[in-house]
Structure formats: structure tokens, C-alpha cells
Amino acid sequence: MLGDYRITGRRAADISASIERAVGAGELRPGQLLPPMRELAADLGVNPNTVAAAYRTLRERGVIETAGRRGSRVRPAPATTGRDHIRVDVPEGVRDLSSGNPDPALLPPLERALAAAAADGDRAPVLYGADAVDPELARLARAALAADGVPDGPLAVVSGSLDAVERVLAAHLKPGDTVAVEDPGWGRTLDLVPALGLRTVPVGIDDDGPRAEDVRRALAAGARALIVTDRAQNPTGAAVSAPRARALRDVLAEHPDTLLIEDDHGHGIVDVPLHPLAGATRHWAFVRSVAKAYGPDLRLAVVTGDAVTLDRLRGRQRLGPGWVSVLLQRAVVRLWADGAVDGPAVAAAYGRRRDALIGALARRGIAAHGRSGMNVWVPVPDETGAVARLLHAGWAVSPGARFRMSAPPGIRVTVSTLAEDEVGKLADAVASAVGGAVGRGYV
Hints:
Elements: H1 12-25, H2 37-44, H3 48-60, E1 64-66, E2 72-74, E3 95-96, H4 111-123, H5 135-147, E4 155-158, H6 161-172, E5 178-183, H7 187-195, E6 199-206, E7 209-210, H8 212-220, E8 225-229, H9 242-254, E9 259-263, E10 283-289, H10 291-294, E11 301-305, H11 307-319, H12 326-337, H13 343-363, E12 375-379, H14 383-392, E13 395-396, E14 398-399, E15 410-414, H15 423-434
Parallel strand pairs: 3-13, 5-6, 5-8, 8-9, 9-10
Antiparallel strand pairs: 1-2, 4-11, 6-7, 10-11, 12-15, 14-15
């Protein structure tokens, strides 16, 4: 059952640590069946309750899952390893379109903004007990959120979108609760939810965002939270349209106790309007990061939401890192105030690259998706084969397995740096890699 690996330990903590180390090292593989509790207890010479406690800890940490009489097994994507192991190693000379990074040429220079923020800090150092949110950042963020129709609420600053999602989930849910997530969806979210001891239920999407009927089924089945990407959805480029937003609001009105988390990480690089769902439930959080427009190393996102959610988020933050560096906050303020990023121009640049590839693929009989952002999703019948053949042809793309639960296979192509003279060559390579076959779409 376990091959050559032997689980060790006399205490529950030691047994769970032994299994988790093996999963992290690849000695226990995703999907591998673990020994029945009584059998392992007899093997180790401990009480079955000790093994039961170890397995419970591993379930709560997102390492294993239990299916009644079918036993316990390592999760398909265990939190210990994450989905980063499902990636392509890009050899020298291969064009890398797998990273999901923005085009460095479209990012603003940071030197002046950081220098100005540092000078402000030299004149008046930020000390313990200072406000966690720079007042000018709060003012500018609130104005931008209000202009996009996001309801007024308290504001917090966190270290990126995923930090916000983790803190909001932890503020409201307990291990064993279920979270409805987009499928295909952001791989880090799909890793994070089970790492918190929560269960995931997939919600199918199309170009207009999460399907309302899928959300209705998930919430009716007991999901306590829903995570929605408003625009530039990773990996598909989906964006919530006005009709879809109305349909989703109707569904959420039937389940007002749902925790709603919206991720608008595409702000500043998209050319489609925002149609927020915020306020459709009692507890909600709306997250907007600066990573895609200003640079991934600016680890900063603003969060607003209902008073209870934000109070819990800020309380937990105070007990951990305390606050996000005001130096970074002031640098972002300077970038915003100076208009360092021409949002429409950046959105147009990414749009031209997406549309060029999608159009070229369509002319070759290949369906592809990408309403917004910097990625194009191409459904394929054989994901592994397509990725391997493209790599052999000199193109590295991201395997869809990094982003899927039950959705059909696909590949994600990051077009952020795709040059005009590369589009036809890439489309030819994709057509050859999939053999002219067209995938089934998102679901």
C-alpha cells in the first residue's frame, strides 16, 4: 500500500508529521491509500484513537482526505506540496508563456516612488502603535472603489490577494466547512482552501464568470463561502458580466449567510467594467491588489467589506505581522497620484495580444477563451500530450491541471509578452499539438 515507506511515531503528532514529511518529499504520492487506522495502530503498537487523531490532524491540514469505508488517502493536490509541482521546466531556448507574469515593459518604474516614500519615512518614522493604513492610500482606494460601485465599508491593507482570502476565510469558517471555488480557478486558491482544513466544491465557469446554477447547487448543498474573481480570471480570462452579476445576486439573496469573497486583482489591466456582487450577503469582502498593474513584488492589496469581517481580519493581522509596511503604502500612493500606470493603454496592449492569439487559433479550428487579463485558456482533449508537444516545438505553456478540479483538460497561455510576429507560429504549434481536435470548453 505504501511501497517502501514506513510510517513511524508513537504520538498522534509524530505519526501525522511522519506522513506529512513523506508527502512533502514525494515518498507518498497524491491519491495514495493510507493504511486503515486499526491496522496502522497495530503496526505501531499504539491505541487506534492515536492514529485517528493523527489522521484528523492531516485532514484539517489539507494533506489527506477520507471517504468513509473507502479509507483515507493523500489528497490529489495535498497542501504540503501544492500545485507548483504541476508545472513545466522551461529549457534554455524555449519561449516561456507559462509564468502568468505581467509584461515588465508595461510595469512602472518604482525608484522615484520608493525614494519619495523613504524620504517621508526619514522625516517622520513609522513606529509601533501608528495607524495600520496610510490615510492618503485609504482616501484614494475608497474613491476608486466607490467609482466602481463597491459599497462603502471599513478598509484594511494586506500582503496581496491570497493573504486577504486566507484571512477572511479564517475569520469566519472552521475546519470541515465547504467553500465554493471556480473550476478552472486560481491554483493557489485551490491549494489554500484545503490547507485551512476546509473542503472545496467546484463551480463551473464560462466567459461571463461563475455559472449561477452551479453556485446555487453548491450553496444549497451546504457551502458556507463563495470565492469569485470579478475580472481577468486566472486561468481563463473570464469577467463577470452585468447579466451574470444579476443572476448571482439573485442566488446569493437565497443564501444571505454565505461568506462572499471577491477578487479584483485585474484592476488596472482590464478594459471591461466591474460588476461587483459586494453587499449581496451579510458577510463579504472585496479585494483589490496592485501586483498585476504595478509589479508582483509590491505585496499590497486593499480589502473592504462588512464591519464584522474587517474587524476580525484586522484583529488577526494585529496578532501576526501587525501591518503592511507604510513605506510600501506610501510608494503605492505616489504611483497612483502620479498616474504611473496608464490603465487603458495597458489593458489595450493585453487585449490586442489575447485577441490576436484567439483569432489565429479560431482560423485553425481551435476554440480559445480570454475576455480580460493576460491569459488565454485553450481547452484540449489531451492536456499532457499538448504541453509536451508544444515544449518540443519550442513553446512552454502551463498545464491546466494546475487550475482544475473536475473541469476538462486545457492549457493556459500567458500572452503578456507575446509579440505580433510570434502569434501565427504559436497558433500553428498549438494546432499541431492538439491535432486539430477541439476541447469541450470549460465544463
